[in-house]
């Protein structure tokens, strides 16, 4: 039986940083589902496909061969990891991610990956939909300001110059769309463990999650 770890939470809560470390530590595969929705938004924007044109969006998604290589997203043999982090993609991704048909296709790919490998998956609907039977579910959150500060530093450190207020507004807007959409809205699974990371270091959060995983693996007698 494969082990699946689900990490959900609002925008810029630190999910990908934490999920990446956990995956390396336990030698699980890291699947950043947000990257998949970002790739959909990027390709649609490049091809001038509006999110309201559901048929065209779906045709495009069906033509996408998506996989991860060295934690970078590859679509139709093209590395899109850098481009999907742009502010323009961040501003538009939630509209594409709210489309039911898009979610059905991506969730299917994600579930097939978790059937094949031990995975750490992060996103918005992992504990509630994609890995709803996993006993290892975490909901990572922090205040909007703490999250905006972290994302601001991350982008500027990577040479993407942004204004703090734009980042804060994007985060608030995205959280609103993600939490209020009809299809698989962002919400904590009933059996998820909630971690507010506002006053915690990365190491603190990694330790909390690792301890739960170790306990579970010891019960299964796999460590
Ligand atoms: O890294 P950040 O928190 O900014 O966002 P992300 O994880 O890259 O996700 C980008 C967007 O994709 C989110 O704002 C959601 O609209 C969407 N998403 C989703 O709907 N379901 C997921 N499982 C993951 C992401």
Automatic annotation (TrEMBL):
<keyword id="KW-0547">Nucleotide-binding</keyword>
<keyword id="KW-0067">ATP-binding</keyword>
<keyword id="KW-0963">Cytoplasm</keyword>
<dbReference type="Pfam" id="PF02224">
    <property type="entry name" value="Cytidylate_kin"/>
</dbReference>
<feature type="domain" description="Cytidylate kinase">
    <location>
        <begin position="5"/>
        <end position="214"/>
    </location>
</feature>
<dbReference type="GO" id="GO:0016301">
    <property type="term" value="F:kinase activity"/>
</dbReference>
<comment type="similarity">
    <text>Belongs to the cytidylate kinase family. Type 1 subfamily.</text>
</comment>
<dbReference type="InterPro" id="IPR027417">
    <property type="entry name" value="P-loop_NTPase"/>
</dbReference>
<feature type="binding site">
    <location>
        <begin position="9"/>
        <end position="17"/>
    </location>
    <ligand>
        <name>ATP</name>
    </ligand>
</feature>
<dbReference type="InterPro" id="IPR011994">
    <property type="entry name" value="Cytidylate_kinase_dom"/>
</dbReference>
<dbReference type="InterPro" id="IPR003136">
    <property type="entry name" value="Cytidylate_kin"/>
</dbReference>
<protein>
    <recommendedName>
        <fullName>Cytidylate kinase</fullName>
        <ecNumber>2.7.4.25</ecNumber>
    </recommendedName>
</protein>
<keyword id="KW-0808">Transferase</keyword>
<keyword id="KW-0418">Kinase</keyword>
